[in-house]
Known about the structure:
Helices cover 68% and strands 0% of the residues. The protein is mostly helical. The protein has one domain. The protein starts with 21 loop residues before the first helix and ends with a helix. The model has no long low-confidence stretch (mean pLDDT 86).
Amino acid sequence: MTTVALSTSPLPPSPQAWASTPSHLEAYNLVLKAESHANEQVQVNPNPEANDRLMSARITGYLLLELSERCEILTDKPYLALVSQIILKSRESGGTYDVVFTSGK
């Protein structure tokens, strides 16, 4: 199994357009926090599982950004479904980052 060193470059900040939509900001902020947590874990103990969590958080974050940008093409249903999934499952799990990590797989 090959281990890939991931960059420490974080996801970009949330788009200004989301400022008027609290649920969109909430979902993306959860992703940003999950990414930050995963990045800290990679720095403390670099291992394949920690790298997977970091990669999954970034995939989820970029998926949110891309689905948001492509609402005119794809409609907003995929984007809103992901936002809802992140928020609802995060609340159900007591605020853990597992929903972000599993959404990116």
